[in-house]
């Protein structure tokens, strides 16, 4: 039986991009109002809310050891100068704060950001993608999650306290501030860098000690001390994403979005997430390393649309393209004034408060209040409605609902899926060439650093048709560095590849038609029995998730334990989620779907969504293991259909051999060995026609079937 969301290729392309069998892809958000989107699906970006058990009393006096106590070598004193400088700004009359919070994000809640916005990294020295820094008049602390504990220990400059978010007894930022600040203190933030929801949550949490949340609009304190050395904002040209890869034209997408606005009795929407803007307009940029997006906002109204962007990024061809789609170009910095003018026009503005900045939300609120005041009908004509339509409203109103584009973008159409399949095969060919080269080099005794290896992989990928960029910084970790989950090798600081240790390589690419993300762990010598057991149990988890069959509309967290169960049997685990969403020629991490042990994300897995499958195991200061493929959610044909519910499974997108030398075949079941052999058979059939010479022979050698002893 075909479910409500099952579509053939022709029907997918023929229909409106947001309609699936009469059911709105946008409208699905109404079923799951508890969904809170965050581009990083491993941990909430702002650890304001405690997730400790209800019976656990978290004392503000509990704190982590300073990272300086954990490092073998002390860092220099440069950060002390930065902390001193930023604290001097606290007492300025126009600022007057007692603490300042510095998040990782830019004004669009991006995970990867342009260098000019890496404020948290500049002030703290920690370069991981997730983390929150807090500076008070006499203390400085940084929160990050389990992927970055080791990296933060190594990178944090002196004077900083490392807070290992998620560990028992570690206070959240608000708990810490409530414990160390005198009652009635003022906590400052840059309102452009916090979503409205995050700001509201923080404001409520610190109000328990009568602290005031202060939005510092006129200056970002880190920028003020960064001064002339701060990199310039990116200014690269925008390009049109070809319709043969996008699958649906911009006019159809805008038409469907306007239908959603009408259904919600809304007259306009502000979109600030960069990948949503790129997807909606079929545009791509290169403002952010690894992510083909451009810094912009868009306001879509019933009768028009305005793109807020630096027009130096728009060449004549793209300008004509936008004009033909009925889109005006406005200066990037004019977004707040346009939001205020919408209130003056009586607009009913759709705002996703989980992603839109508190600066934008506050600007609209203030303009609504001004409208009410001047009209003499205060509190009568304006009101906000959460997750529902505005009715019988004569004045401006805010409609608080999740972004309607998030689901539409996550559910790939057939053209997008075909691009993902094709790009993954070209990527697999590059990986086969790379691994053949690396094994030959290591076997001949060559001395290679982790950076050398990452650079060579980039060289092989760059030869493939349609290659644009890496999809993230390559994680090339030998031995103990593999245990640093998001390790980034640096020239003159990285390790030499050790043939007698495990080597973990997590990498990906941006192609014109798709985005890839793959991890393989190998050993160039003879692995120990313990390394083989750990690797095999990670592989068993990978296989279990790959083979999972689950009911339609089930959230991803239901599947997370499939990937951990074999590790759990011997008391092992890993500190990150098992899977994240992946964009089609877009961000390598996208929402709203995920597969994670954090069960707050109730987003269902639906046909056409792409997710990663990446269980792992890490022994600090010893080794790391991770096996990652990308999967596409597809319909599963089951002999039964209990309760009339359809079932789903996964289609593999990644086709690169898994090193069988690292497998303890005695631990694998016959079914698991069959899976491994069948996977390698598919790898050989799909990839061997794309390679030749040593890569062809390497592929043949590494896809031979194995037999259970």
From TrEMBL:
InterPro entries: Creatin/AminoP/Spt16_N, Creatinase/aminopeptidase-like, Creatinase_N, Pept_M24, Pept_M24B, Peptidase_M24_C, X-Pro_aminopeptidase_P. Residues 96-209 form the Creatinase N-terminal domain. Belongs to the peptidase M24B family. This is Xaa-Pro aminopeptidase. Residues 418-635 form the Peptidase M24 domain. It comes from the Eukaryota. Residues 647-706 form the Peptidase M24 C-terminal domain. Keywords: Hydrolase, Manganese, Metal-binding. It comes from Salvia splendens (Scarlet sage). Its cofactor is Mn(2+). SUPFAM superfamilies: Creatinase/aminopeptidase (SSF55920), Creatinase/prolidase N-terminal domain (SSF53092). The keyword Transmembrane helix does not apply. One of its GO terms (molecular function) is metal ion binding. GO terms for cellular component: cytoplasm.
